[in-house]
Q: What sequence folds into this?
């Protein structure tokens, strides 16, 4: 009787230990996934007309690299993923036109007039614009965007397959 | 003597701990040291000239609110400074999108735009907040301060405080 009980607890212990080990391994895997997603690179689906010649209307899967904005290595010409200032749950993809201290000149309303306006981007902000200036909601409406809202730099297109490759600046 | 095997194991352990630490502090809770007297009655209540690191307040920051970006006025939040993305500030949200804010210096009333909030320090005498840089995007917020942890005699919850002088329609 006693031997049986001993055997039973022994077996139960080993099962529990195994389950624990698996759970820990799984948790570690999730942590690795989170860190890769947030600090190395992650895939994103973008769609909409605002970046038209560069990115398609119907939806592209892009790889976004999350290191260079932390190191301050993004510059004019880079396509970046930005948390929308109007709705923090959404992200927008635009191209950086000017960094802090740069003077930018832009058409206020290219659909109706060719009035242009220029200003100096304030400290800690960037000026972003879509490639399709006729259908893009960007810094011309939102004003300069704080650098802290940049989430990553787009460097590669994965989908559709015929558009696969690095994005040019 | 340290064998290569032992060193490898140690490096692996450090890496795992780092991963878990980073994940937890990004997604769930983290610690923050609060410097300066801009939140004076709530944090760092007494004037002190000798700024030693153990004299600062340490506070617990929860990150669950970042999933939906739902805040209520009176919450104490940590956000990236709009003019310098490397710097994090701790202030109290006093108005949310759609609220009207009365700026005491110029006697203006401004409405907070969509996706923004108005942050102010509890100590208006020395606080760099929305009164100088205007409303900030909610996307810059990176956590909500819930508890004071360090000076042992003030351990406790940070309460939500709504200043009554604001008005909303």
A:
């Amino acid at each position: 009787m006693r031997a049986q009980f001993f055997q039973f607890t022994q077996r139960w212990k080993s099962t529990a230990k195994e389950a624990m080990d698996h759970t820990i391994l799984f948790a570690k895997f999730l942590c690795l996934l989170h860190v890769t997603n947030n600090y190395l690179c992650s895939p994103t689906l973008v769609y909409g007309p605002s970046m038209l010649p560069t990115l398609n209307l119907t939806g592209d899967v892009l790889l976004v690299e999350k290191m260079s904005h932390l190191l301050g290595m993004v510059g004019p010409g880079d396509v970046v993923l930005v948390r929308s200032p109007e709705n923090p749950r959404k992200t927008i993809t635009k191209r950086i036109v000017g960094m802090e201290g740069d003077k930018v000149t832009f058409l206020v309303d290219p659909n109706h007039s060719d009035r242009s306006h220029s200003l100096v981007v304030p400290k800690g902000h960037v000026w972003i614009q879509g490639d399709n200036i006729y259908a893009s909601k960007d810094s011309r409406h939102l004003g300069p965007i704080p650098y802290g809202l940049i989430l990553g730099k787009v460097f590669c297109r994965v989908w559709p397959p015929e558009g696969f490759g690095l994005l040019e600046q | 003597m340290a064998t290569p095997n032992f060193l490898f194991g140690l490096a692996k352990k450090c890496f795992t701990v780092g991963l878990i630490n980073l994940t937890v502090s990004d997604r769930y809770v983290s610690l923050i040291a609060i410097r300066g007297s801009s939140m004076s009655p709530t944090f760092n209540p007494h004037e002190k000239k000798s700024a030693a690191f153990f004299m600062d307040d340490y506070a617990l920051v929860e990150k669950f609110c970042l999933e939906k970006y739902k805040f209520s006025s009176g919450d104490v939040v940590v956000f990236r400074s709009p003019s310098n993305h490397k710097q994090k500030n701790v202030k109290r949200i006093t108005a949310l999108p759609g609220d009207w804010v009365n700026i005491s210096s110029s006697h203006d009333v401004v409405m907070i735009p969509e996706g923004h909030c108005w942050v102010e320090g509890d100590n208006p005498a020395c606080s760099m907040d929305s009164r100088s840089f205007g409303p900030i995007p909610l996307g810059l917020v990176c956590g909500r301060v819930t508890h004071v942890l360090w000076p042992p005699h003030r351990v406790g919850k940070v309460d939500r405080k709504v200043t009554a002088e604001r008005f909303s329609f």
Remarks:
- Chain B has a mean pLDDT of 84.
